Amino acid sequence: MIEIAVDMMGSDLGPTVLAKAVKDYHREHKDIHFTCFGKENVLKEAFQGEEGITIVNTTEVIPMEIKPLDFLRRKDSSMYRAIESVRNKTCQAVVSAGSTGGFISGATILLRNIPGVTRAGLCAAFPTCRKDKAAVILDVGANNVNTAEDLVCFAKMGRIYAKEVLKEENPKVYTLSNGLEEGKGTDEIVAAYKLLKESNFPGFMGNTEAREVLDGEHDVVVTPGFSGNILLKACEGTASLVSKLTKKAFLKNLFTKIGYLFAKGGFKDMKESMNYKKYGGAILLGVNGVAVKGHGNSDAYAFYNAIDVARRMVENHIVEKIEEIGK
Question: What Rg, from alpha-carbon coordinates, does the chain have?
């Protein structure tokens, strides 16, 4: 039996939407037990006595913007209690769609880094132009500043995730830079490139540029958290813009509307390929426990997939395999 802790509070769409995801997942996976943290009266109504789900009453909700010390003071918040259950080994994974800053701070402080991991990294699977093929990018926001040694550690953890969860047999690993040539990029990128090259890191292919990372050929892309977060937001914004412009173009007149009818199947496939929700959320790799952060506006489909990521990480013993880095 896999035990998953769920922070039910703090998401944009509220606990009822998250409850639907939990119920749907539980009905399809009877080997999963959920412990859901939040306001008891709200959760009892949302779950209506669903078997195999434990409700733990909490009195506080972590706001979107919170400092680490303030997080530690809110010991009866749904997010704190959910992460704490992983630290106490009563649950094997935690999933939340609440405050990203609070989640990163809480998981880092309560779970602590695996020995040998210099910095935990927020890892996200990005959709690419190849259907059902993802690019693993980290860090996408857990840190603002990283060292070359951090980036090498990200490469190791990202490769493990790509192999074990996404089932890439021989992941190709790149460093994100402003040019392909060796020596391009910031000091930490240049130094990380050198360390990866000199150690004959498995699958290391060199630098890549942002315009290439979603071509379906880049399995793992390593970057400091600041630039990784900018890449994440830029990709989200571009996907939204393309969707709006495409819709506007086909609504222009009667002929464009007729054209859409002929192209509808192709655009359906494109929409599915670009749908980040199918990858569920980002994973904080490097802490002593499985910690999955769903998007703040996760609907039931996205949160269902975030839960699925957590289950697959537990089943594939990702934490234990990352522990091998420090040995």
Answer: 20
